[in-house]
Amino acid sequence: MAPKVILLPGDGIGPEIIAPAVEVLGAAGAELDYEEHLFGGASIDAHGVALTDDTLAACRAADAVLLAAVGGPKWDTTDPAKPRPEQGLLGLRKGLGLFANLRPVKPFPALYDSSPLKRDLIERTDLLVIRELTGGIYFGEKTRTADSASDVCLYTRGEIERIARVAFGAARSRVTSVDKANVLETSRLWREVVRDVHGREHPNIELEHLLVDNAAMRLIAAPRHFDVILTENMFGDILSDEAAMLTGSIGLLPSASLGDGGPGVFEPVHGSAPDIAGTGTANPLAMFLSAALMLRHGLAMEPQAAAIESAVDRALAEGLRTPDLGGRATTAEATRAVLANL
Fold it and tell me: By residue range, what is the domain housing residue 223?
């Protein structure tokens, strides 16, 4: 019986890149059973909420979830009573217990010169940002009056221990734990717990602690220094997008969100790009690479995952360039270039 995959096209360019991803998965030899659901702004328009109970139940019953993009100016609001597409993401992460977000950052040699950084800075960069996904300021209690607002940042020892184990398990040689322990109590607990997990369970892996401002500078000045970057929710959100630019385009970065044994969610780092939606020019490569992460981390299909990644690499080496990479290739042309290398 084929593994069940829930497709969440979402908004903006989402539907335009998820269909080619299904085509690429098939060409790579991944036999999967798909079921599509509305999500984000599209779900708000149809159902009044970004994530329905039925969609969440379908995701829970699946083997993996492939998500394209959510959001857009149509649903932007500062009214806390109105639904926002991003609430679907938070609800999905919480509902599936997805506490670990993995974002690999490995610039393609063919695109070294597309990065805003000098080639000799980014060459051989191969790092992984591991972001805690269900705690911290995004999920803390919130208050709002006409003149003040607050967002509580809360972490427990158990939440920090489990994300630290993911980081040490993924590291080849070093984990860089990022915090703001000179100011924040949550960061002081974070640093203490990460140190405890390291000493008890992974003393063979090097551990270093960096303050988040220092880490942001080092990521630009010396990206090759990093192996695994471990950090909490908000810092991870910011640093992973910064790291994305090492590749030359945020349109090239995939991500995986994992929990304890249930289905993971796999999605590109880029947003819904409403400014180019409907033009046929969206870069589908991050979507393809997210599909490859799904095969590897969600469905144990390593050969098919490696085939997709290799095909993307070869297509870029042969000169494939979408507009975000300074070229003219359309979504369809990019898809054909990858398919030709499978």
Answer: 116-247
